[in-house]
Amino acid sequence: MILSINNRQLTSYVYKQISMFFPDEIINDLTNIEKCVDIALDRVDYCFKSINVAYYCNENKESLFNHLNGDHYAHFLYFLSNSIWTETKDEKLSSKIFLLNKALHGLDLFYARTMPDIFLLVHPIGTIIGKASFSNYLTIYQGCTIGHLDTNNSSVPKIGEHVTMFSNSSLLGNCEIGRNVVIGANSYLINTSIKDDKIVTGQYPNTKISPNKSDKRFFF
Questions:
Q1: d(CA 75, CA 91)
Q2: What is the pLDDT of residue 29?
């Protein structure tokens, strides 16, 4: 992977950001950041190598990470917060990095959420990714919402591979979404299942389901 700054500089960069944003006198554990930056970057590398979009790979299929590219950095902060949580159980540090992502990018993606290994966030301002079952090759644009409808978390979306959610679309409750499904801009589903190879437009319960004949992919 080709980095805009090296691992040591990235560790320092994150540490300085969370110290500035959250000056609560709780000592941030630099050791846990150092331990998990490499893990997070490995996850970024694996994810970005599959993304067939400009600025994610070069002509040699080497992944690119630019800490000043907001979409890149949003991915990285999720992977870092999640890695710190799974590796060290440092809840305060995981929370701060989650909140840093929220402050910088308007992205609500909790550190304990289990995202797929390969996914794409496209300028995800205002996106809320709650509890769901995710699959690889998921693309999420700005203003999207995914999650449950009740406080018991009894019914959450189940999302298949190669699903694209365009801007301001939502999947709420018991939605089982098949493979190669597109959720159109400003569309939403509630407790509705969609079969493979479909395009969804409109708002529940007045949604329109059309065949998706496109083989265009955001991924290799």
A1: 19
A2: 78
Residues 6+ apart with CB under 8 A from 19: 28
Where do the structural domains in the chain lie, given as residue ranges? 2-106, 119-211
In this structure, the strands spanning 138-140 and 164-165 are: parallel
User: Where do we find the tokens 């500035």?
Assistant: 20
Cα torsion 35, 36, 38, 39: sign: positive
Q: Give the total residue count for the chain.
A: 220
Q: What is the pLDDT of residues 165-185, one digit of tens each?
A: 999 999 999 999 999 999 999
Percent of the chain with pLDDT over 90: 91
pTM above 0.70, yes or no: yes
CATH 2.160.10.10 fits 119-211, yes or no: yes
Task: For residue 57, give the DSSP letter.
Answer: B
Give me the pLDDT at residue 28, please.
75
Both tokens assigned to 100: 């840093």
